[in-house]
Description:
By secondary structure, this protein is of the alpha/beta class. The protein has 9 helices and 11 strands.
Amino acid sequence: MDNWDDYRVILALARGQSLRAAAKLLSMNHATVSRRLAALNHRYAAPVFETSPKGLQLTPLGQRLLEAAQQMERLIQGNRRDELAATDALQGDIRLSLPPAIAQWLLLDELSAFQQQYPQIRLQIHCSYALASLDSCEADIVVRVSNSPDEHLVGRRLFPIWLGYYCRPDYLQRPAAELGWITAPGTADWIAASPYPNAGVALVLDDLVLRHQLAAESGGLVRGACYIADQMPALQAIDNTKPYPFQDIWLLTHEDLRAVPRIRLLMDYLADCLQRKRDLIEGRLGK
Length: 287
């Protein structure tokens, strides 16, 4: 097989284990991926993938083709990093991945100002809580909130995101039995150490910013990020509780890109922007 697009399909099917997931990875529609899979399975004396109760599974032949695809992918990714590192000019693309809330509440204006200051650098900004892979060239720089980032990546640890307990002041006028927390999916064992440990979970919402907005507009108790909650006039810290550190902010890039001038420039710029907003991030500008 000499078509890189076929190898890309094999990689996506192996990683997604379904036509729908592979289509999303490839930015194709379901029918196109289905046709590509049928073509792959008819090109050889044996199938490349088989259907199982767990989804699409590689056959022994498919496993050998996948290994070849992974080798080609690593070569292509290494070539891209070499190309980036080969220029000293402050121009070209930078792919930046960061959480949507940090983009919206801390860095949106600053990223626009950077682009205006350096018009020859084009920022491609990907906002997601999913961790973009630097190894796979999904991003050149990532902003992550974590206590355990990938050890082989390089960059700097800044300081923690701080959290506090917030609600609308009038919400606490309700009877204690009616109070409830707005939480993220997963465990909420932190409620036991909160100002209202006996309040139950009223609503589970996976969007960080919407949890704050719901508490501000409709009521509810929320464990919120200070840099968001303290910028919402309707929210106040519950019973004057003090914020506390959660997870660290990291600015990271790949080892092969650390010396690229435009990469270093943007990382320094982001670090300076976040440092100037440290009081907001750590809850020292509370209302």
